[in-house]
Structure formats: C-alpha cells, structure tokens
Write a structure and sequence with these properties.
alpha+beta, SH3 type barrels, five-stranded antiparallel sheet, 4 helices, 5 strands, Ribosomal_eL14_dom, ribosomal protein, KOW, ribonucleoprotein, Ribosomal_eL14
Amino acid sequence: MVQFKTFVQPGRVAVVTKGPELNKTCMIVEIIDQNRVLVDGPLTGVKRQPMNLKRLQLTPILCKFSHGSKTVAVTGAWKQNKVEEKWSKTMICKRIKRKEIRSKLTDFDRFQVMIARKKRSALLRDAAIRHSLKKKSAKKPAGKPAAKKPVKAKK
C-alpha cells in the first residue's frame, strides 16, 4: 500500500489554484491553523500572505528551513534546492503548460488537433488488431489437420 507523503509542512512547495496568483508556485513558511498557512514566493511573484489550503495544491518538492523564516531565507532555500528545475519536471507543471497552450488555440488549430487525434487513434486501433491476430495465429498448433469424419455411402 502506498503511503501519503505530501504533508502540509514548512518548506513544502505549493501551487496556487484560485485567485489572482493562479498557477504560481509558492512555499509554505508557517502553519497558522488547520485551514490556513503563511506562504511566500519571492521569485514567482507571490507576496508573503496567509492563504487558505483550499487555494493550494501541494507538490512533492520540499525544502529544509526553520518555520517562520524571513523572505531572504526562503529565497536562499528556493535557490539552493533548485526548485524551478524540479518544478518544471513535475506532472502538475506539465499539465498547467498544456492547458495554457490549448487555451490559446484558434478554431483552425483545434480542427487540426482533432484530425491528428483521429489519425493517431486509427493507427493505434490497426496496431492493436494486428497484434491480436498475431496472438491468435500463434495459439494454433502447426501439426496435423483435424481428421474428417467418414461419409456414409448411399444405397
């Protein structure tokens, strides 16, 4: 069984999912109560402020520093742990970038994407059919053919 590992803790990097700082990364500096935390994102444009946990999505990235640290310490930990590099490799970041690209598509671009998806699914379907036919032909033994029943002679 897989254990849950992304806890709310000082040093945890999170993504803002609602509000004016949408899709910006920040770091949890202090836990205020069960619903709110103090966040700071000095290199991403998120000011030091209390934020509701419902507005945050936690990431697996964690930095070590003491809770309640000042912005200078947060910036140092951010740079030392190379958070930007780690962030760009996460699935959350890739999903956000993919959504941004899709939202900027024109009508013709969406049409081209639809045609490309149809072609891709047709190729996958054909490959799956060929694969299943190979499996069926491999199951049949290449020995003697089955004996036929003798035909009765008419009188």
